[in-house]
Every structure is written in structure tokens, then in C-alpha cells.
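Hi R.,

As promised on Friday, here is the backbone we talked about, encoded as C-alpha cells. Could you run it through your design pipeline when you get a chance and send me back a sequence?
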């Protein structure tokens, strides 16, 4: 991932509907599925500039629950410290600096696509999670949405359900699937159209770096989160794939 991308992300992630929506969904699933008690650990692997870690610490550390953020890139850790006052551990998702069965909640938002060996990355998430704990993963979906944005972020791939299931398959007996759905389905066709037009006309401007007007931002956030929480909604496509597992 190019260094300047961390600065761009840090400037918009707190309020942008897409990034904020993913963090809301993480907290929704923690409240819904995690069995937390005093002394437990929540671990965010690939924490970026630390916005999720900051929010989770504010929410859970008063309850005696520790929140650990792990980030490989020095620039991201620096931005987290300087702009958010958030300390992150140095470490790679391919070799997490934690003992086995440390975490009650293990999170990896948009991380597995950054490493060539995504099966090893998933095995590390599983390793550090306690039996009964949950693992929350988000990855970008559909190679048809591939763009220069993916290149700038250092992605190796975008996923379909079948390709992500192949990552999970070696460990399928070690977890129970709680949620496995495409997310952001309402935005799939607009994103696909914009990215095709950007390629055709060689447009460099990216909507991911800009926060819409307050009213539009709130509307997009409400649609994104509302559809993602709806138990009856099983879209055949989306810009992301969101997965929640419970370790056996």
C-alpha cells in the first residue's frame, strides 16, 4: 500500500459513510455475538491508522476489556499516534505477535487482500482467537470492480464468495459460520459504472477520498448499515464481503 494512501484514509475515515459503516457493523456483531467479560481482549489486525481501535477502546476499556491494534506499516502507526493518540503494536497478519487463544474478538477489515498468502493470514486470525471467540473479516468483492484504487492500496485480489470459501476451507471444521454476505449491494452498480467510466476516460479523481455532503453521507450510511443488518437480505453482489465466524 502506497504511503500517501494512509494519509488520505486518515483524513476521511472517521466520517465517510463506507468506513464508518464498517465500524458500526463490527460493533453490531460484537454486541450480538461476542461473549465478553472483564479481562478479555479484542484484537484489530491490520489496524491502519487506528480509528476502529480508538472507538473500541472508548467503548470497551471502561468495562475492563483490552483492545489491541496491530499494524505492519510504520507510517500508519505514526499517524495513529500523532493524530489520534492511539498506540498500535508492530506486527504482520502473517505472523501476529500474540500467543495462541489470546483474543475473544479478532478483527481484520480489508486486510487479507493485501497479502499473497491469505490462507496463512486466516490461519493466524484463527490461531490467536479463543475457542468460543468470534472472528470478523471484511474483504473487497468482485474482480469486476478492480481499479487503480486497488493497485494503489496494494491489493492482490478482490473476492467472490467461492474464492473466499477456498481460503476458509482448510479450517472449516474449526469454526461455525455466523454471517457470510455481500455488503454494500446498493452501491455495486454505481461503483461498477464509475470505475468503467474512469478506465475509459482515464479519470484519476476517486470518490473514495471524498466525503459526500452531510445529508447524502448520512443517507448512504443508513442504507449501507440497514441493509447489512437485515437478516432477510441476501444480495448476490456487493462491493464488499463481510464474514463473522465463531471458533469451535
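Update: got your reply. Pasting your designed sequence below so it's all in one thread:
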Amino acid at each position: 500500500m502506497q504511503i500517501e494512501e494512509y494519509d488520505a484514509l486518515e483524513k476521511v475515515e472517521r466520517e465517510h459513510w463506507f468506513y464508518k459503516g464498517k465500524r458500526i457493523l463490527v460493533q453490531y456483531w460484537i454486541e450480538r455475538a461476542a461473549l465478553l467479560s472483564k479481562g478479555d481482549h479484542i484484537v484489530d489486525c491490520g489496524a491502519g491508522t487506528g480509528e476502529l481501535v480508538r472507538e473500541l477502546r472508548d467503548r470497551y476499556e471502561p468495562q475492563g476489556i483490552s483492545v489491541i491494534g496491530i499494524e505492519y506499516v510504520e507510517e500508519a502507526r505514526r499517524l495513529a499516534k500523532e493524530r489520534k493518540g492511539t498506540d498500535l503494536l508492530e506486527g504482520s497478519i502473517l505472523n501476529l505477535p500474540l500467543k495462541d487463544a489470546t483474543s475473544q474478538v479478532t478483527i481484520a477489515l480489508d486486510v487479507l487482500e493485501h497479502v499473497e498468502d491469505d490462507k496463512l493470514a486466516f490461519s493466524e486470525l484463527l490461531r490467536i482467537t479463543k475457542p468460543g471467540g468470534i472472528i470478523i473479516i471484511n474483504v473487497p468483492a468482485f474482480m469486476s470492480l478492480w481499479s487503480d484504487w486497488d493497485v494503489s492500496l496494494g491489493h492482490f485480489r478482490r473476492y467472490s464468495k467461492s474464492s473466499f470459501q477456498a481460503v476458509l476451507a482448510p479450517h472449516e471444521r474449526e469454526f461455525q459460520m455466523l454471517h457470510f454476505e455481500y455488503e454494500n449491494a446498493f452501491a455495486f452498480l454505481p461503483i461498477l459504472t464509475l470505475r468503467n467510466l474512469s478506465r475509459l476516460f482515464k479519470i484519476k479523481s476517486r470518490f473514495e477520498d471524498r466525503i459526500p455532503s452531510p445529508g447524502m453521507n448520512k443517507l448512504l450510511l443508513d442504507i449501507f448499515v440497514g441493509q447489512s443488518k437485515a437478516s432477510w437480505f441476501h444480495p448476490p453482489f456487493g462491493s464488499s464481503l463481510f464474514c463473522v465466524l465463531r471458533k469451535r
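One thing I noticed while checking it: The first strand starts at residue 41 and ends at 45.

Thanks again,
M.
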